[in-house]
Amino acid sequence: MLARERGWRLARLAGLGVTVAVLLSGCSFDESVRGFGWFKGITPEGRRMYELWIAACIAALVVGVFVWGLIFWCVVRYRKRGDELPPQTRFNMPLEFLYTVIPVLVVCVLFYYTAIVQTYVDRRVPNPDVVVDVVAFKWNWKFKHTSVDGDEVSGPAGSEVTTIGASDYIPVLVVPTGKRIEFREYSEDVIHSFWVPEMLFKRDVFPGGIKEDGEEEGIVNRFQVTIDREGAFVGRCAELCGAYHSMMNFELRAVSESDFARYIDLRKQGRSTPEALEAIGQEGYATTTRPFQREPEQNDPQAVTR
C-alpha cells in the first residue's frame, strides 16, 4: 500500500515537472527574461534601477527557495506514518526570533539601496544642457524646446519651437544623446503621466503651467536624464485620463549632438518637425507607433476624418 502511494506521488511530481518544462519551452530567453521582466534602459538612471530590480528579484528568489525548501522538508519529514498523534510544540523562541529578525534585516537592506538609487534618479544639476517643456492635454502632447546650452530657443519672429500632437499625427520629441536633459512637465487639464518604457521611469503630469516671466502655477514636475543611445523609443501616457487615453502616444527620438544642433537650427528657421528630421537624415514621422484609427464621432474635435 505504501509503495503504491509513493508511486503515485512520484508520478504526480514527474507530471508537474513535464508541464513546467513544456510551458517554459515556449518562452524566449531575451533581455527582458534575463532581467526578470525588465531591460537595461537607455539612461544611467535606468541602469541603476535595473540593477536594483535584479538584486531585489535575486533576494526574493533566495528567500522563496529557502521557504519552499522548509515547506517540502516538513511535508516529507513529518508526513503521517500512522494513527499516533505526533508531539505537539507550542512555541520555539529561537526559531520565532530568527524568522522575525531576518525579514526585518532584508527589508532594511532593500530600503537602504532603494533610497540610494532613488536619490541618484531624482538628482538635478543646476544648469542642464537642454530644457524641454512637456505639456499634456486631453488627449495629446505638446513639446517645447525652451533652452539649449543655456540659450533660449525661438523660431522666426520670436515664436516658440514646439511640436504638437494631433489625432492624425504622433508628436516626435527630438533630444540629443550625451547631454543632460531636463523635462518640465505640466498639464492643461487633468492628471496625465509621461512615460518612455526604455527609460524605466515615468512621472505624473499635474495641472499647472509656466508664465512668460517664469513664474510657475499649480504643480510643475521636473526630472533630468542623460540618454546615451540613439534611436526611436515609444512614449505613452501612463495615467488613465479620459475617454481617449489610449491615443496619447508620442515618440522620443534620440540623435547625436551634431544632428540635434542642426535640427534646432532648422527649427529656428521655421522648419516643421518632420521637415527638420528628414533634413538630418531621420524619418520624418514616428516609427514606433501610429495614430489610433477610429470612426469619427459627431462634435468630436479629436475625431479622425476619413
Give a short summary of the structure.
By secondary structure, the protein is α+β, with helices and mostly antiparallel strands.
Overall, the morphology is: elongated
> What is the CA–CA distance across the termini?
75 Å
CATH domain fold name of the largest domain: Immunoglobulin-like
Number of DSSP E strands: 13
How many separate helices? Answer: 6
**Strand portion:** 15-25%
- Domain module count: 2
**What would CATH call the class of the largest domain?**
Mainly Beta
Major beta sheet, specifics?
6 strands, mixed
Residue stretches low in confidence (pLDDT < 50, at least 5 long) are 20-29, 301-306
Question: How large is the radius of gyration?
Answer: 27 Å
* CATH architecture classification of the largest domain: Sandwich
The average pLDDT is 84
Helix content: 25-40%
**CATH homology-level superfamily of the largest domain:** Cupredoxins -  blue copper proteins
What structural class do helix, strand and pairing data support?
alpha+beta
How would you spell out the order of helices and strands?
HHHHEEEEEEEEEEEEEHH
Keywords: Copper, Electron transport, Membrane, Metal-binding, Respiratory chain, Translocase, Transmembrane, Transmembrane helix, Transport
Family: Belongs to the cytochrome c oxidase subunit 2 family.
GO cellular component, one term: plasma membrane
Main location: membrane
